Amino acid sequence: MSFFVPLLLLCLFAFCFVKKVDAYGSFAEGAKQALPLVKSLLPFLACMLVAVELAKASGLYNLLDLLFSPFLQMVGIPAELSQLVILKPFSGSGSLAMLNDLLLTHGTDSFVGRCACVVYGTSETVFYIATIYFSGTSVKKLGVALWIGLFCSFLSCVVGCLLCRVF
Q1: R_g of the chain computed on alpha carbons
Q2: What is the pTM of this model?
């Protein structure tokens, strides 16, 4: 599998050679065209990252953990995963660090470890994606899209933990 990326690059350069396309010039032009997009997205990303760090530092995640943990247990998600389920829609890197802690604490082959991996893999960073995609459009009413994204992410966590119980 380690040969895949070099093979892909080789095929790309061969295609550029056959079509007589300047690969480096095309790459540089694409990067140049992407700079205004990056400039317009940066304030939204900074705002989201600051909000996530403030929520962590203030103890908001611990409070949400206490509030939602009984409900999550009721629908089949282990109590140890409540912070992961709450954090994942906001922060991919924060939830990856939390997944690492869960795996070190409970082990990779434990029920909690398997569920944590499935929850991490099946859920999505809904707010990050909404920030990126909707900042580039004129859409201002995000409410319905956010609720649908959060519901689907939560449903994937529930179904994933259910499948871990079955298999």
Answers
A1: 20
A2: 0.72
